[in-house]
Amino acid sequence: MNVYFACSITGGRAYEAVYQAITRALTSDGIVIPTAHLAETGVVDEEKIIEPRVVFERDVNWIRGAQALIAEVSAPSHGVGYEIGLALELGKPVLCLHEQRRAVSKMITGNPHPKLSVKAYETPEQAVELAREFLAQVKLYL
After folding, report:
1. Region 100-107: what's the mean pLDDT?
2. Domain coordinates in residue numbering, the chain
3. Looking at CB atoms within 10 Å, which of 8, 39, 47, 114 has the fewest?
4. Contacts 24+ apart (CB under 8 A), 53-60
5. What was the pLDDT predicted at 12?
6. Mean pLDDT throughout 58-82?
7. What is the CA radius of gyration of the chain?
8. Which residues does residue 95 pair with via DSSP β-bridges, in sequence order?
9. 117 and 96 Cβ atoms separated by less than 8 Å
10. pTM of the full predicted structure?
11. Phi and psi, residue 130, nearest 5°
């Protein structure tokens, strides 16, 4: 299974440990995550040197090729919001994860799209479990 993982890069890296827990666990489960490098420390500097158009085309192609999108939305991000909207427009199932105590945009929490799930977690381990449960459901429909 190919899954696009979306997370904040320029909007803040406060949840980097959660990004890493999710991508590392899912990769160890055999999930292909072309964006796993975005969870890693130092990605802000790495992504700075890539032209914006190249990032746009790369990421859109990765979303098109994915069976699902998982987004960690605790830190607000214009890019992540765009990626979520694009994935839903393309008919991809989307899971938005956020830390329990964080407020999330009502454009996410109020969206009634049938392929959108929004779940809160208290620990990185719980975030991983929610991601695994979501992907188990996605696999049923592939």
Report:
1. 95
2. 3-140
3. 114
4. 59/4, 59/35, 59/83, 60/86
5. 84
6. 97
7. 14
8. 70, 117
9. yes
10. 0.95
11. -65, -40
